[in-house]
């Protein structure tokens, strides 16, 4: 069974950093492309970042480019999202997902506020 479990969210001030983790089970993340999405209150879910199986190709939403980095540790079967210089508009529930099969985690809340 495929499972994705996110962690690492929290309340931070503008300019601070967080690293989100997504532990996968039931498959090897090295074999699949993976993505991060987020959904802010009252807004539609939006794409944040993606990584190809080779990890050589990564894509980012324009709103996070230069501040967020997607990566993975195949030995831990874990996907990461390093978020630097956080802004209030980054406040959302962040979810990891595997496009193949449309598997989603439960999400982790990130709140950026002074």
What spatial form do the alpha-carbon principal axes imply? globular
Number of strands: 11
- Radius of gyration, whole Å: 13 Å
Mean pLDDT: 96
Ends apart, CA distance between termini: 40 Å
The biggest beta sheet is recorded as: 7 strands, mixed
Point out poorly predicted stretches. none
| SSE-based structural type | mainly beta
State the helical fraction: under 10%
The share of residues in extended strands comes to over 45%
**Count of helical stretches:** 0
Order of helices and strands: EEEEEEEEEEE
Quick take:
With 114 residues, the chain is mostly beta strands.
Written account of the structure:
With 114 residues, this protein is mostly beta strands. Helices cover 0% and strands 50% of the residues. It is built from no helices and eleven strands. Strands 2, 4, 5, 6, 9, 10 and 11 form a seven-stranded mixed β-sheet that branches. The chain has a four-stranded antiparallel β-sheet with strand order 1-3-8-7, with no helix packed on it. A hairpin with a 4-residue loop joins strand 7 and strand 8. The model has no long low-confidence stretch (mean pLDDT 96).
């Amino acid at each position: 069974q495929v499972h994705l479990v996110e962690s690492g969210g929290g309340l931070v001030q503008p300019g601070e950093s967080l690293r989100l983790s997504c532990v996968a089970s039931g498959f090897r993340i090295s074999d699949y492309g993976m993505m991060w999405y987020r959904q802010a209150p009252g807004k539609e879910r939006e794409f944040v970042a993606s990584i190809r199986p080779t990890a050589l190709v990564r894509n980012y939403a324009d709103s996070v480019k230069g501040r967020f980095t997607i990566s993975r540790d195949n030995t831990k079967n874990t996907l990461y999202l390093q978020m630097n210089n956080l802004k209030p508009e980054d406040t959302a529930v962040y979810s990891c997902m595997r496009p193949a099969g449309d598997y989603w985690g439960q999400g982790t809340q990130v709140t950026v506020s002074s």
